[in-house]
Amino acid sequence: MPFKGITWLWTPQRSFRNSWIKTSWTSGAFELVVGGLVQQMAKGGRRVRAFGEMVALSWMDGSRPAAIELEQLWNDLSLKHAFTLFCAYPLANICPKDDGPSLRHICAMHSGVISLTA
Length: 118
Fold this sequence. Notes:
With about 120 residues, the protein is mostly helical.
């Protein structure tokens, strides 16, 4: 088994994100739900790595402000909990001409950006 000793937690991101958008979650609610999951996964000293698909889904659906807000919520959460967050924005959904300011804002919210082109 290649992933021996690793615990996986999967959440249905699109329905989770849609719930977040419809109910206008506050940072406190994000901390309670997502922070609670991170804290639960970190029990016993386990390192937590998360993949933030919700931001890319928001971006792909045309909701740049929601993607930026989610990124900020993740960044705020990282001040309270130890975890590594990976994000991925499909290049096919990014138009540098139209998305320039939002894209620069998103990139500035990350500790590192790797551009992969086909």
